[in-house]
Amino acid sequence: MDSRIRTYQIAADYIRQQIGGATPLAGIVLGSGLGRLADRIEDPIVIPYKSIPGFPVSTAVGHKGNFIIGRLAGREVMAMQGRFHYYEGYPMELVTIGVRTMAMLGIRYLFVSNAAGAANPDFHIGDLVVIRDHISLFPNPLIGPNMDDLGPRFLDMTCAYDLELQQLAENCAARMGIQLQKGVYFGSTGPTYETPAEVRFYRQIGADLLGMSTIPEVIVARHCGMRVFGMSVVTNCANTDNTPLALNDGDDVVRQADAAAERMTTLFSNMIESL
Ligand code: HPA
What we know:
Blueprint: H1 3-19, E1 26-30, E2 42-48, E3 66-72, E4 75-81, H2 92-95, H3 97-104, E5 109-118, E6 128-136, H4 163-176, E7 181-187, H5 196-204, E8 209-211, H6 215-223, E9 227-237, H7 250-273
Parallel strand pairs: 1-4, 1-5, 5-9, 6-7, 7-8
Antiparallel strand pairs: 2-3, 3-4, 5-8, 6-9
Helix pairs in contact: 1-3, 4-7
The structure holds hypoxanthine.
């Protein structure tokens, strides 16, 4: 057996021992400042990443490092409160270890969220944006010998973001009176934010959202056949000229994400209830 798969299995076995019983239906990755969804999970079992064999410790601002397993809207879910970013220095195998462990546990749906900057001038701070596609500047997490037991060597990415889940999001949002935007997520490694010239360039090639996460997780989730729903919370509008006033800062990102987290939580709950 591939030693990487063995690592994921050992982590999954450890978690299974802690939670016993039912396999969660959906995994949820919570982005910067979006961790409060975890507070709505009933009868939570908290498993710190640092207690799980093979897992690293998450260090980013606004991020905790726990799996939270319990019920959301009556369904069993498993949330990642905090993720591993490439800019923290982790290799791609560790950036994606949480998602692969969830897949090993038998989880079929992945809801990924992030705080993102808006490159689309029609987007505003606090907007919820359904990710309909992405452009990646990350090294591909599937580089290296393929894990044939998980998925194919050459992975189709035409519908990486599940079309039915996007429709479900629109239906739920309409019912709840929540406004949604749709867009293309452009992911780069960070940790620097984009220069204004880069923002203009990325906008020209189709970026609506700018971020430093999510894409590696989505690729490995698709590789092991999970159905993916992605959502960004707009925490800032990216600078397109060299004025010093609209500089990004980490605290502001966390504050804005907090305000929108409540609406995103309600939307995710409604969607998961309907799965
Ligand atoms: N760029 C990249 N990542 C981000 C941003 C941004 O403007 N805002 C929040 N995460």
